[in-house]
Amino acid sequence: FRYDSSFFPTRNMLYGYPEAPRFPHRPGGDDLVEFPISTVRWGGINWPIGGGFYVRTWPYALIRLGIRQLNRQGQPAIMYLHPWELDLHQPRPRVTPRERITHYYGRGSLEGKLRRLLQDFRFVPLCELLGMIA
After folding, report:
1. What are the backbone angles phi and psi of residue 63, rounded to the nearest 5°?
2. Residue 64: φ, ψ to 5°
3. How far apart are CA 89 and CA 62, in angstroms?
4. Number of domains in the chain
5. Other beta carbons less than 10 A from residue 67's beta carbon
6. How does DSSP classify residue 96?
7. What number of other Cβ atoms are within 10 A of residue 69's Cβ?
8. Pairing of strands 45-48, 39-42
């Protein structure tokens, strides 16, 4: 493996590692590059902006502000979406209230936000960022 994106440098109700570095780095000086999912530091807290749930949840203006802040710091925004998040017609099995929120909330707005992100910013695959990490 040349790169990984497993660390989530904040905590939510399911997972997270708030002490993890927020920006791409080489753990232990290895050849492996870690690309943490993007967070922005506001009020002493790492706020997630890079994951599908957070793109669905936060207003677009907040996501854009966070990405611009990262870019001003010389950092890329590391983001991901799950393909199912764009499929509004997928089956809806019975799930717990928490799962209903994390799985379905904000999906109706995701396509529009994704279109705006692609208009407002340049995105590349992680492999194209490997050269920028010392």
Report:
1. -60, -45
2. -60, -45
3. 27
4. 1
5. 21
6. -
7. 16
8. antiparallel
Q: State the burial class of residue 39 (Cβ atoms within 10 Å of its Cβ: 0-12, 13-18, 19+).
A: buried
Residues 6+ apart with CB under 8 A from 80: 5, 37, 50, 51, 52
Cβ atoms of 40 and 73 closer than 8 Å: no
Q: 3-class DSSP state for residue 93? A: coil
Residues 28-53 pLDDT 10s = 877 899 999 999 999 999 999 998 99
User: What pLDDT digit, counting tens, does each position of 86-108 carry?
Assistant: 999 989 899 999 999 999 999 99
- As a whole number of angstroms, the distance between CA 50 and CA 58 comes to 11
Domain span including residue 91: 3-132
d(CA 84, CA 52): 10
**Mean pLDDT computed over every residue of the chain:** 92
CB-based contacts of 126-130 (< 8 A; 24+ apart in sequence): 126/3, 126/5, 126/35, 126/78, 127/2, 127/3, 129/24, 129/33, 129/35, 129/76, 130/2, 130/3, 130/33
